[in-house]
Amino acid sequence: MTREELEIFLSQNPTIQQAKALARKLGLKVKKRMKKNEVFKLLEDFAKSLASEKKHEPVQPREARENELPQSYGSDKLVLLSVNPNLVYAYWDLSDETLSKLSRQKEVVLRLYDVTYVVFDGTNAHRIFEAGVHLSMTRNYYFHVPMANADYVAELGFKVEGNFVPVLRSNVAHTPSNTPSTSVRQRWCIKGKRTVRVGEPPLKPIERIHISSQLESGRP
Amino acid sequence: MNGYFVLVLHTHLPYVNHPNHELYLEERWYVEAVLESYVPLLMMFDRLQEKKVPFKVTISLSPPLLEMFRNATLTEKVKNYAQRLVELCEKEMTRASTQQERDLARFYRERFLGCLNYLSSVNGNLANGFRRHAQLGNVQLITCNATHGFLPLMRHQPFAVDAQIKVGVETFKRHFDFEPKGMWLAECGYYSGLDELLKKYDVEFFFVDSHALWYADEKPYFDVYRPIMTPSGVFAFARDPESSEQVWSATTGYPGDGRYREFYRDLGFDRDYEYIKPYIDKSGVRVNVGVKYHRITSRETPLDKKELYNREEALFAANEHALDFLNKKLIQINKLTSVFNQPPVIVAPFDTELFGHWWFEGPEFLENFFIEASKCKQIKFATPSEIIEKFDSFQIVTPADSSWGNGGYFDTWLNGKNDWIQLHLVEIRDRMKKLAETYVEEKDLLKVRVLNQMLRELLLAESSDWPFIMTTGTNVQYAVNRIKTHVKRFLDLETQLVKDNIDGEFLARLEQEDDVFPWIDYRSYAAFQTGKEG
């Protein structure tokens, strides 16, 4: 039975007896006291575990198939891009050599350093964040970062007896600012001459704020 | 006089050119924009000029769009399509059962004929229409970065940003024979330091969203109501949030008025299949054909219950809204003048396609707005260059990294739906740079052509439209294919170049299909001296 067939069966709202019978046939553990929705849940979960036919289905136009791009360029790059004040994106593209080197390690990790106003030498970051990486499962990460208007650098490497050994380092990514400056300095160019004043502007901006209703923000 | 108003129309479509096919589904984006927005707006400018109404508009024309304007095959497709619509309207006139329907069919017929006339009056190239109003002083034309690439996501490859800006300036010069003073940065995407590259190419001003100034390194004294100067001496104009809100707002915005034309009710879906088949997509898929008989009626009215469109009532609404908008601007100017004791500068940027395509009566709204405002002394239209001339004090700030996209940052162009493109874009940029350096002395004309075409493919892949479409979720397959196609073509050309096994026919086909920037020189990708990293 395919996933689609099972989904169709469930969508036809079968009786509890029919559902239980099918579940038994499929070798699922059905308990006598199970309610209808519990049996349905059991079948739904089983459906999810089945391979979908759909994947093979829509025959891609010839041109599209010809256009398949390489999965990797073997370029040994770690690239870090900021998305918004609190999110940065890192992806890596490894050479076979680096991949096999890292694959031999038990603990592969990605580190993120806050290097704002720092000439980074590997040891002088303000803060260090770390996440474990499954190289076989992922090639990119989104990091939620605490500081807007800050500079971040990432390193991909591994840990041996608690020590971090970096293998690749990324470029610096700057997170955008999301608050008005606290400075009261004003630099001016008046008739071509540059001068400095001090003071607050007469207007306060009305900033946008995100509103989410309870429905959107997630149920308990 | 106590306030300036800077209206900016950002005009861009991704480059879509399939010369070896009949009208392609995605080529309709261009056809619709020409027939519904660009020509109606240019005709409106002509009317204002005739009536001697003073007006000023800043118009950015993106390089891909300029390249489509000059593309004779595309122009033929637009003309053919308009002619077929004229024919459809004639069928409609005999088919109509009521006078009101017949009048609507006649209205559209005349409208399409007017478009055709206009197109021949500018020799099929709309750039001529824009140039005319630039020469008359009504319009300040500015450029846009090369293929509308989203620059904040390229900042770690400054040579790529450099090429986007250089090609943007150069394309404009080639089309208009004068230098663009300003540049519209795709999606208002800005990052600190970008101003230095703009300066390098003599770009004097650009535009940012409001929060680029609110969150700048120092607080802007005039809020968003006076351009600022960046440390490198380039001016940044920030968007007035009120003007956009008044036009756009889902609840109170003008385009939602019940008297305006309903966009989603179209003959392409209304008529019998066999009858409408010659006018919809060649695959037989129903699409909008651009003849729409209904009005919005009310937002709650289901599509099949919409009432028939009444042109007079719609024009009346456009006039009413123009007066309302003018009134709101005057109140705003008074308020701001009393706060600052100096004339405020209100900057209102819009996507050009809002006027005419999405909001059918948009051009008439603007027309009425200009006519009514010309009777007022308190509001004066100005171009950015005029504003820079008029004031003699500017605050120096570094705007915050930002965009005008959803959320105000880069999320729209980098998220789980489109992040896979980065691997390829970053890689082919690095390869392009390396090859440009390796082959910098190349004399073999065939190899030079290959390298130039590789740069074209790279630039076309960088267009912000593709990741945008993947995020919004309509036409995703086309956007995915376009990125893959350009990257694949780049890689294939690279292999042929390196193996010295160039397929001349393949190259010629790419040059014909991806026919942008014929003058481009790949060596410019090598010439860039890597500056400090972002």
- Please state the overall shape of chain B, judged from the principal axes of the Cα atoms: globular
Radius of gyration of chain B: 24 Å
Give the largest interface: A-B, 56 and 54 residues
Considering the protein shown, what is the CATH homologous superfamily of the largest domain in chain B? Glycoside hydrolase 38, N terminal domain
Determine the strand fraction of chain B and express it as a percent band.
Answer: 5-15%
* Tally of strands of chain A: 9
For the record, the count of structural domains of chain B works out to 4
Amount of beta strand of chain A: 25-35%
CATH class of the largest domain in chain B: Alpha Beta
Provide an overview of this structure.
The complex is a heterodimer of chains A (220) and B (534). Chain A has 220 residues and is α+β, with helices and mostly antiparallel strands. Among the domains of chain A are: 3-55; 77-174, Immunoglobulins (Immunoglobulin-like, Sandwich). Helices cover 23% and strands 30% of the residues of chain A. Chain A has helices spanning 3-11, 16-25, 36-49, 62-66, 96-103, 214-217; strands at 77-84, 87-93, 108-114, 127-132, 140-144, 151-160, 163-174, 185-190, 193-198. In chain A, the strands form 3 sheets. Chain A has a 4-stranded antiparallel β-sheet with strand order 4-3-6-7. A 3-stranded antiparallel β-sheet of chain A has the order 1-2-5, with no helix packed on it. A two-stranded antiparallel ribbon of chain A has the order 8-9. In chain A, strand 8 and strand 9 form a beta hairpin. Chain A is extended, with a radius of gyration of 27 Å. The two termini of chain A are 35 Å apart. The relative contact order of chain A is 0.12. Chain B has 534 residues and is of the alpha/beta class. Chain B folds into 4 domains: 4-70 and 125-261 and 309-406, 7-stranded beta/alpha barrel (Alpha-Beta Barrel), CATH 3.20.110; 72-124; 262-308, no CATH class; 415-527, Families 57/38 glycoside transferase, middle domain (immunoglobulin/albumin-binding domain-like). Chain B has helices spanning 27-50, 63-69, 72-95, 99-121, 126-135, 158-176, 194-200, 210-214, 241-248, 267-270, 273-276, 311-340, 362-373, 384-390, 421-438, 445-461, 465-472, 476-498, 504-513, 524-527, and strands at 4-11, 57-61, 139-144, 182-184, 205-208, 228-229, 235-238, 345-351, 380-381, 393-396. In chain B, strands 1, 2, 3, 4, 5, 6, 7, 8 and 9 form a 9-stranded mixed β-sheet that branches. In chain B, helix 16 packs antiparallel against helix 18 (476-498) and helix 16 (445-461) packs across helix 19. Classes of the chains: A alpha+beta (220), B alpha/beta (534). Chains A and B meet through helix 4, strand 1, strand 2, strand 7 and strand 8 of A and helix 8, strand 10, helix 15 and helix 18 of B. Strand 8 (185-190) of chain A pairs antiparallel with strand 10 of chain B.
